[in-house]
Predict the 3D structure of the following.
Amino acid sequence: MVSATCETHLKEGRGTWIEIICRARIGALLVVFLLSFTGCVLALDNASVIPPQLRGVGIDQRLNNQVPLDLKFRDETGQSVTLRSYFGKRPVILSLVYYSCPMLCPMAEDGLLNTLRLVNFNIGEQYEVVTVSINPDETPEMALGKKAVYVGLYGRPGAKQGWHFLVGDEPAIRALTESVGFHYNYLPETRQYAHATGIVVLTPQGKVSRYFYGISYPSRDIRLALEEASNGKIGNVVDAVLLYCCQYDPATGKYDVVISRLLKIAGAITVVSIGTLIFGLSRGGHQS
């Protein structure tokens, strides 16, 4: 702000040198303002510019899309397998990483492991987990090493048969990632991959059911997604009620409570309770 003294001098036109100083101060303030404004615009513009390495990277939701189950990969033993080997009976959690990743992929797999340890369903019994490397140069030996670590830390019977670690050729990897909307870029200068993190829940028939983003997932939401993907074939009455009261939000990848459905259940419980009370009172009156 210009001082009151300067404002007075400019209005009254007192003294040439004072007027010059005051006008100079106003000009300086204008310059500072313009520079600050320009800096903000440039900052906003730079924020909107995506580095070349990250262009196209992300996850597009392709709900209900069919994953090509005839794609061939190699499992941790080196055996040639098709994706169909892991489908047909139970829902599947698909995790797309690469085994030589120095930071992000281990964090994502650790987050998945920690979540699955909190879910009451067991890998290999109620659902399968398929972890696929997006790096075509990686080997079954690398997959075996990762499986030994995560199956060992999971520590439940059946996980060895239910958690699968795969490697594959570039065409098969691209076909799989494209079917679920998982986009990534290879960075030749660092020999690494720029990619998003998240997991995909698939139905027993291999259709995309739900997405979860990040490196940590709510265990309740994972349980609900597995129950939903199985079409109610796993879980219990409580899961069915929770699933009825909650609705999946594709924008957030979470299940949000639907108040109207919750009120319907509360109303039904109230009606049943009142009916039971009336029936009990009437029975008591007849007995007396």
Remarks:
- The chain has three domains: 4-48, 58-257, 261-288.
- The chain has nine helices and twelve strands.
